[in-house]
Structures are given as structure tokens and as C-alpha cells.
């Protein structure tokens, strides 16, 4: 990967602004060249492709795992290059069509095939837990907690809650906030990749797990469920879930517990 620092007022930013505002749109193209060396060590270009920064700025979108065709001197394809370019906020700020990325987030891209732009953080609140009947009856299971696993990364856990005498929901009220701003490029890139159309379902899911707390450091996993970021993104009405009832299924007892979840994606 390669990154370029574009601090406000720097020569690099001024050069970018000049390219984006040029009458010749090719001035804002980023070129990729495929080269080889012959037996004498001399370099030879086989093909070339490009990405238009101006088009990305106008569309307000990032480029994520998209293929760039490399064309030879006679116009024939000599291969493809898979490219990601996370620069939408910087480009729009340079072009003057949006505020600087430290102060605002971009509008969301429109259309099912467009790569999404993101807020600076992903917020998930686990509000309450309703236990399956067998957990409620089992005297050995007294304390429980819920964890979330985001894109296969670190697992975050809620505080423990004690089982009540009745089957009333147990209040957890734990908010998990995951930064995906430009200061966390790995998480941001993972999230952008996960939310692309056609991505395998497990790669775009937030996994929820229910544990029985055995000791302060150890717990037994009882049940699990998931939310698909891809599905949330595709349906504008669900991008902010409020008190959504999510099933946590126990593969052994075949029973379900439920958590109330709110999200902001």
C-alpha cells in the first residue's frame, strides 16, 4: 500500500487542487503501469491503466477492491489490477465540494452497487437480554454477558448481569463504539470491503455471542446470532436500528434467547 500526506496548505494539497480544477481532466488521473525487464535488465512497459481522482471526488466515493484494466500499446488488455483508494473525503475537501474530513462525514453513496462512504464510527448498543427457558431454570447459570465480534477482530464484552427471579429482560445498556475514521485505516478498509455487494455473508456480519459467566475471567458460550452490515446498508430504513430484537440461537438445546440491539451504521 502507499499513502500520501495532504495537510491543509501543503504543496501536495495545492498540487492536488490544481489537478482537480484543471480544464484537462486527465491531469487528475492516477496511472498504474505494468512493467518487465529483459535479459539485459532494461525496463519495458507492457501496459497501463488509470483511475480518475476527479470522478471519485464528484461521486463522493472511495474505490475498494475494484479492477483496473491495463491496456497495451495497441489497446489490447494485458491484465487487470485490483485497486483500493480511500480518498473520497480528502478529494472532496480539495475540490471544495465538502468540508475537511476532520469535521464532517460524506453523504452516503446511492445505489446498490456503489461503495459506501462512512461515518467516523460504528455504534452498537446492546440494551437488554431475554434468556431462553432452560437458562432461566438452570441453577448453575446465574450470571451472563454478551459479546460482539466485528469483522473477525477483537471481541468486546458487556458487563455481567445477574439472572432475575422472573423471566423479565435483563438490562445491559452497553454501547460499543468502533472507530472507522481515517486515523484507523485498517478498520475502515475492512468495513468498506465488507459492505461491498457480493461479499460473502460472514465477512459483513457483526457476531453476537451469549456467555454464561463461570469466573471473572472465564465464560461458556451458549448461543449466538448476527447482524449483516450489508443488509443494513442496502435498506436505508434500517441503517439506524432502534431496539431491534435479535435472536441468539443455542445449537445444543435448540432454544433461543434474544437481545435488544440498536445500531448506527
Automatic annotation (TrEMBL):
Ranges of Polar residues composition bias in the record: 1-16
Alphabetized InterPro entries for the sequence: C2_domain_sf, RPGRIP1_fam
Record GO biological process: non-motile cilium assembly
Annotated stretches, region: Disordered: 1-29
GO cellular component, one term: ciliary transition zone
Protein name as annotated: Uncharacterized protein
Organism: Phaeocystis antarctica
Species classification: Eukaryota, Haptista, Haptophyta, Prymnesiophyceae, Phaeocystales
Amino acid at each position: 500500500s502507499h499513502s500520501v500526506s495532504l495537510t491543509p496548505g501543503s504543496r501536495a494539497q495545492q498540487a492536488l487542487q490544481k489537478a482537480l480544477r484543471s480544464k484537462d481532466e486527465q491531469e487528475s488521473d492516477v496511472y498504474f503501469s505494468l512493467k518487465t525487464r529483459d535479459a539485459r535488465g532494461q525496463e519495458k512497459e507492457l501496459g497501463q491503466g488509470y483511475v480518475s481522482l476527479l470522478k471519485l471526488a464528484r461521486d463522493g466515493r472511495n474505490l475498494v477492491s475494484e479492477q483496473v484494466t491495463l491496456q497495451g500499446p495497441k489497446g489490447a488488455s494485458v491484465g487487470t489490477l485490483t485497486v483500493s483508494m480511500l480518498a473520497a473525503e480528502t478529494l472532496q475537501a480539495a475540490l471544495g465540494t465538502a468540508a475537511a474530513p476532520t469535521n464532517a462525514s460524506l453523504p452516503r453513496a446511492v445505489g446498490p452497487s456503489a461503495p459506501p462512504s462512512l461515518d467516523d464510527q460504528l455504534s452498537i448498543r446492546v440494551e437488554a437480554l431475554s434468556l431462553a427457558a432452560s437458562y432461566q431454570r438452570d441453577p448453575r447459570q446465574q450470571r451472563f454477558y454478551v459479546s460482539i465480534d466485528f469483522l473477525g477482530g477483537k471481541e468486546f464484552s458487556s458487563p455481567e448481569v445477574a439472572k432475575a427471579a422472573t423471566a423479565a429482560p435483563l438490562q445491559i445498556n452497553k454501547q460499543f463504539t468502533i472507530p472507522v475514521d481515517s486515523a484507523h485505516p485498517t478498520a475502515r478498509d475492512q468495513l468498506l470491503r465488507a459492505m461491498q455487494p457480493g461479499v460473502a455473508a460472514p465477512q459483513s456480519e457483526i457476531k453476537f455471542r451469549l456467555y454464561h459467566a463461570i469466573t471473572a475471567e472465564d465464560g461458556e458460550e451458549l448461543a449466538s446470532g448476527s447482524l449483516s452490515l450489508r443488509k443494513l446498508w442496502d435498506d436505508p430504513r434500517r441503517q439506524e436500528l432502534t431496539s431491534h430484537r435479535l435472536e441468539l440461537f443455542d445449537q445444543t438445546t435448540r432454544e433461543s434467547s434474544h437481545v435488544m440491539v440498536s445500531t448506527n451504521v
